[in-house]
Amino acid sequence: MTGAALADGQTVHDALAVPTAEEAVRQNEIWTLKRKLAEEIAPELRRHYETEIVPRHVAEHGAPPADRRVIASLMAPDPRMRLFSALRRRSQEQMWDLVLTSANRQLDRLLDLAAGASAAPGSLDLDPALEIPRYLRAVDIHCMPTGYYREFAPDDVTAGALYDRGVYVYAGGQLGGLNDDKGWSVIRGYLDRHRPGWTPARILDMGCSVGHSTVPYTLRYPAAEVHAIDVAAPMLRYARARAAALGAPVHFAQRDATATGYPDASFDLVVSHILLHETSVKAVQQVLAESYRLLRPGGLMIHAEYPPFDTMDPFAQFLVEWDTTNNNEPFWSKVRTLDLVAMAATAGFDPATVHRELIPTGRRLTTGQSGSTSGGGRMQVLAASR
Ligand SMILES: C[S@@+](CC[C@H](N)C(=O)[O-])C[C@H]1O[C@@H](n2cnc3c(N)ncnc32)[C@H](O)[C@@H]1O
């Protein structure tokens, strides 16, 4: 069931770790700080770069800084840059800490809710023997202290509850009240345009986390059987409780997107939303091959990711790369350099059907770059048909 929205706009549903008034104030301080850093300080850094660093570099070397790494070395000593870095890192850690405290306070209720969700339409199929990929174990990704997969109680949902509220605060509400902007962006910005009127019978969402992007597919394609997989059990248990609260009949399963175990030709539509940047080169290639194997003739694969480096200027690339080194996102930069179109062809797709395009999305990144689509950001879509 959904109800009112929090004062900051997040839609309240039964599974949400709703902050107390005191917790909300502290969480919203982080939101305000993050927004200030993105909307005021990042553009200031760009101005400093363009008006002071570039002219000096041109005077000394006869050309502007060659790339994002040179820019990083030139910006690093600047006191404004150091303050920006310190505040961004600190705000990220503090955001998770505050939301975790709030989620822990409500843990008994959330565990009960998850246990009681088993009767709702849809399903949950966990595999305790599934190995968590090394790239998820190696760091606490984007400084999330639970990671996606760690468990602190029997049948735990903590990481899922943390993610649902944390993503909303992190994105400053830009993903919408249900954090579902990416799912809707792919549906409206790609599927409605390229396959209007299409009615896929079976849909698979890979790397679904708590199902933020999965639920929109149940709404746009109500006759379809919607499946969603992730390697992390706490995310899936929470996703199941959340989907039940929202009345969305999703079949969640703990499976690895690189080797799902579903039979060949099981799905008409295979999608993912910001999964690829949290994996590895090898896993991306395997996910593409698995997508190819899973599609029925006439089926469609769509992987939505953040924009690649070749769509932004070197200073924007430098600010994007900040997260790679400072926010525990080891694959955040590398994925933006991959030739995903060529990799899809290697995975088996007919090159004539493979393409990538940028679609509008609500989420803006801290690039300090003007010129993104009005009011929002852009997301890369890699698409191919079987
Ligand atoms: C950034 S989150 C995805 C967010 C979600 N798709 C959305 O749109 O809200 C990445 C998710 O991918 C999962 N993941 C990473 N590697 C995976 C793999 N090989 N197979 C399945 N899930 C994976 C992680 O556990 C995590 O929940």
Structural summary, described in words:
The structure is a single chain. By secondary structure, the protein is α/β, with parallel strands linked by helices. It has one domain: Vaccinia Virus protein VP39 (Rossmann fold, 3-Layer(aba) Sandwich), CATH 3.40.50. Helices cover 44% and strands 16% of the residues. The protein has 12 helices and 10 strands. It has an 8-stranded mixed sheet with strand order 3-6-5-4-7-8-10-9, sandwiched between helices. The protein has a two-stranded antiparallel ribbon with strand order 1-2. The chain is globular. The chain starts with a strand and ends with a strand. The protein binds S-adenosylmethionine (SAM). S-adenosylmethionine (SAM) binds at residues 133, 136, 148, 182, 206-209, 212-213, 229-232, 235, 256-258, 273-275, 278-279, 283.
Choose one word for the global shape: globular
Kindly name the structural category: alpha/beta
Ions, cofactors and other ligands present here are: S-adenosylmethionine
* CATH topological fold name: Rossmann fold
Beta strand count = 10
Strand content: 15-25%
Structural domain count: 1
* Cα distance spanning the termini: 38 Å
Quickly count the helices.
12
CATH architecture verdict: 3-Layer(aba) Sandwich
Helical amount = 40-55%
Query: Nearest-angstrom radius of gyration?
Result: 21 Å
Encode the helix/strand succession as letters: EEHHHHEHHHEHEHEEHEHHEE
Q: Low-confidence spans: pLDDT under 50, at least 5 residues?
A: 368-375
Q: What order do the strands of the largest sheet run in, or round the barrel if closed?
A: 3-6-5-4-7-8-10-9
Q: Which sheet architecture does the biggest sheet show? A: 8 strands, mixed
CATH class: Alpha Beta
Kindly report the name of the CATH homologous superfamily.
Vaccinia Virus protein VP39
Mean of the pLDDT scores? 94
